[in-house]
Design brief:
heterodimer; A: 247 residues; alpha/beta; Rossmann fold; 6-stranded mixed sheet; 10 strands; globular; B: 307 residues; Alpha-Beta Plaits; 2 domains; 4-stranded antiparallel sheet; 14 strands
């Protein structure tokens, strides 16, 4: 197993004449919380889809959890977790059923499913809600559950696509407590967000502009580099250089 | 008379569990830019749907531009513009066709009110032959705003127009709203982003169907209970765990690269005590300073009291 969770060199994706992702290169350490920022249309989703084994790169190289994004897409899928704001859990299944379903998809045995499922419900304090439809839970609870389900198989990396959009400020912070716990247990966290205060919670951050990675460093160093007092200013300085329209 | 008035409005979608809205009252003055600030599930969309006559409340009454939302729904529909949270234009029509369709529906023409939408429309005009379903999020948002404005409404209702939009586009969107306000349009806008609250003249903080407070952003900040401090150290995450164990802490949470905290209101606890305690825990480079809260701090303080 390589030490790096993600190794990415000159990764590129073209759609016809359009270069959605343009020679991006970066490494992510095991157990690191890596913030993947960029304006709408900068190429984040396309890059993430390649790293999750859902889309073939046009050129370049990348290994995720030690597996090649061209040749070992299925191995990648088995070794990562994924959740997004838009789609996370089945609303018309109960809490328990969702855990069972995703645990099964991620390859857990019946015995593991039972143990992990109970452990997870206790950890999140959802004992009373275990048999309720997920659709009836408040968004913040849903997102905490979705995250816990996405790492139920203790993957090497979890990809989070705007996990906290619309979540209230108190629950948003509880969500980050879960992220820190996961990182502490050795899971690499790869996360996108539009909340710039959350960017500060990452170990390192990259900012995509027009398909390229135009900045990559710790939040503290980026603020120094751009002579800024907050990540909001750093983001603004970078994103306004974009030539491509948000789309 | 105020342009939008809600009085003791309640609404439940299900028989059991907490209602979507609980005794909500507020009013919006003519020409005001009023913000409904709260997370998902707070009841913001329910308020919009009641005010735009798309949903009946269980209790209470409401008027928009002097018209009752139940008796005069017809009049209201022709004098308000509404941009729902979910993109609701015709996906199979082009930008241009959608705009003409909505103008015709309201008995006007694109030309008659073009001046109002010009700044916004010019940004999407290069793609006017493209179908709405094929547009990016940012372009859809601009088209939806144009369609909501094409009949020059008296009141504009915008339900989470900036959700999922990046920081740069969000800033541009708020600049557009300031220009519309200057045209005399009353605007009610909702957002889950607390940092946008300061761009409104008055705001209502809302959570789980209840209004927590209504005031100008400056007055809400002024009314913050007690003192708020920012705490910094070399390793912030461990700092959070240690600080939360300190007996005198009322609230403590991460805020960017710092922690924000307040002390229990018993007169026994102070910054110097916390600092020496943290140093005894092995924390390095610890600094503390009193700060002015922002709207998010106020929201957290309000919701924590409710728990």
């Amino acid at each position: 197993m390589s030490e790096k969770a993600i190794v990415c060199k000159d990764l590129t994706k073209r759609f016809g004449d359009f270069v959605a992702v343009n020679h991006i290169s970066f490494d992510v350490d095991q157990g690191e919380i890596f913030g993947f920022l960029g304006a709408n249309g900068a190429g984040k989703t396309t890059a993430m889809r390649m790293l999750c084994g859902l889309s073939y790169p046009t050129s370049g190289e990348a290994a995720v959890a030690g597996y090649n994004v061209f040749k070992q897409q299925e191995e990648i899928k088995r070794n990562i977790g994924y959740m997004s704001q838009k789609f996370s859990l089945y609303e018309t299944l109960t809490v328990k059923e969702n855990i069972r379903f995703y645990g099964g998809v991620y390859g857990l045995s019946d015995k593991q499913l039972k143990e992990k499922g109970d452990e997870l419900i206790t950890k999140l304090g959802l004992e009373k809600e275990a048999k309720m439809m997920v659709g009836s839970l408040p968004l913040g609870w849903k997102q905490k559950l979705a995250f816990s389900v996405a790492i139920i198989h203790q993957p090497r990396i979890v990809f989070l696509d705007e996990p906290t959009g619309g979540v209230d400020p108190v629950t948003r912070r509880q969500f980050w407590d879960l992220i820190y716990d996961a990182a502490g247990s050795g899971i690499t966290v790869f996360v996108t967000t539009h909340y710039m205060d959350e960017a500060e919670y990452c170990n390192r951050i990259s900012v995509m502009v027009d398909g390229r990675i135009d900045a990559l460093d710790t939040p503290a160093n980026l603020k120094k580099q751009f002579d800024a007092t907050s990540m909001n200013e750093v983001f603004y300085a970078l994103a306004r250089t974009a030539k491509r329209s948000a789309d | 008379m105020d342009t939008v008035i809600l009085q003791h409005v309640s609404k439940s979608y299900v028989k059991e569990g907490p209602p979507a809205l609980q005794d909500v009252s507020f009013s919006v003055k003519k020409g005001e830019l009023f913000g409904l600030i709260g997370p998902d599930g707070a009841g913001k969309s329910t308020i919009f749907r009641i005010l735009t006559t798309l949903l009946l409340s269980d209790k209470g009454s409401a008027t928009v531009a002097g018209y009752d939302v139940v008796k005069n729904y017809h009049e209201i529909r022709s004098c308000v513009g509404y941009m729902p949270g979910k993109f609701s234009l015709y996906q199979d029509l082009t930008i241009e066709e959608n705009l003409h369709f909505f103008a015709t529906l309201f008995g006007t023409t694109v030309e008659a009110n073009y001046a109002l939408i010009k700044d916004i429309y010019e940004q999407i005009a290069p793609f006017k032959k493209r179908r709405a379903g094929k547009l990016s999020g940012g372009m859809k948002q601009k088209l939806a705003l144009c369609c909501a404005l094409i009949h020059r409404p008296e009141v504009l209702f915008l339900d989470e127009p900036t959700t999922g939009v990046d920081a740069v586009s969000r800033k541009e969107f708020w600049e557009m709203l300031q220009r519309l306000k200057a045209e005399g349009i009353t605007i009610v806008v909702s957002t889950p982003y607390m940092d946008e609250a300061s761009l409104c003249e008055r705001i209502a903080l809302i959570q789980t169907g209840q209004i927590l407070s209504i005031n100008t952003p400056a007055n809400i900040i002024k009314a913050y209970p007690g003192k708020l401090y920012a705490l910094m150290a070399t390793k912030v995450h461990l700092l959070l765990k240690d600080t939360r164990q300190y007996a005198g802490i009322n609230l403590c949470y991460a805020a960017g690269d710092k922690l924000h905290l307040s002390f229990k209101d018993d007169g026994k606890h102070h910054p110097a005590g916390l600092l020496s305690w943290l140093e005894s825990k092995g924390q390095q480079g610890v600094r503390i300073e009193e700060i002015t809260p922002d709207i998010e701090d106020c929201f957290i303080a309000k919701t924590s009291i409710h728990e």
